[in-house]
Design goal:
The chain is mainly α. Helices cover 75% and strands 0% of the residues. The protein is globular, with a radius of gyration of 22 Å.
Length: 242
């Protein structure tokens, strides 16, 4: 049977510079949102934004102003991704397990789409390095989901950076390329790779250390309760023997 105490729709409080104003805006928008659209509709719209993010990168090879549409897609994905869960909870029409699965799977798709769109603007080694950003950036997401399955605590901000800050970073990159060309992102790419790699190592180290402490605490608790463990074993023996 599925776990009735599912908590995937209850993230830990976001700890990032934009978290508080974003939360205030979402709380203001949620009760005013049109009744004809539900949260799961907003979740699925990330498919459209992902296709658009790739397409604008391809089209921008010929005309860089297409990146303006990339900015629109980033803002649209922020809007739908921020409101889908809040809308379901506010109206009590949410489907939390489906929402957890599809919302975060599509977040991954949108991340890959945005990086792929930028990679299309580059050539040679620069394109390779931009594509190398993808698995490293996705590593933060994988760490978050695995940590949730291990601890029941769902955290989506890392080192003071959350999804909204990342979208803002992408918007800034689009704007810089429009104004100055692709060279402005080619030069810092190696440093970005190093920064992301170090950041991921720090996050994984802290997370595994925290989970290790939980396991050691559980292990100590089991060691302090030998009679309980013994009774469980004997009960199991009786069941199997019967």
């Amino acid at each position: 049977m599925p776990d009735s105490n599912f908590t995937g729709d209850k993230k830990l409080p976001l700890k990032s510079p934009l978290a508080a104003p974003e939360r205030a805006l979402i709380e203001w928008l949620t009760p005013r949102f049109t009744k004809h659209i539900e949260g799961y509709h907003l979740t699925l719209m990330t498919i459209i934004w992902s296709i658009g993010a790739v397409a604008c990168g391809w089209l921008a090879r010929g005309q860089v102003m297409w990146l303006l549409s990339g900015i629109v897609f980033q803002l649209a994905q922020w809007f739908t991704d921020s409101l889908d869960g809040s809308l379901g909870r506010y109206r009590d029409t949410g489907i939390p397990k489906w929402g957890y699965y599809m919302d975060h799977f599509l977040d991954y798709i949108f991340l890959c789409a945005g990086i792929t769109g930028l990679a299309m603007l580059l050539d040679g080694t620069d394109r390779f390095m931009m594509m190398a950003v993808m698995p490293i950036a996705a590593g933060f997401m994988v760490s978050s989901y695995l940590a949730f399955s291990s601890t029941g605590q769902f955290k989506i901000t890392f080192l003071g950076i959350g999804p909204t800050e990342l979208r803002l970073f992408m918007i800034i990159i689009y704007g810089l390329v429009i104004m100055s060309g692709t060279a402005i992102i080619s030069k810092p790419l190696p440093y970005l790779l190093v920064f992301l790699s170090i950041g991921l190592c720090v996050v994984v180290y802290r997370t595994q250390k925290y989970i290790w402490k939980i396991d050691m605490s559980d292990k100590a608790s089991r060691a302090d309760s030998p009679n309980k463990e013994s009774s469980v074993v004997s009960s199991s023996d009786v069941t199997v023997g019967g």
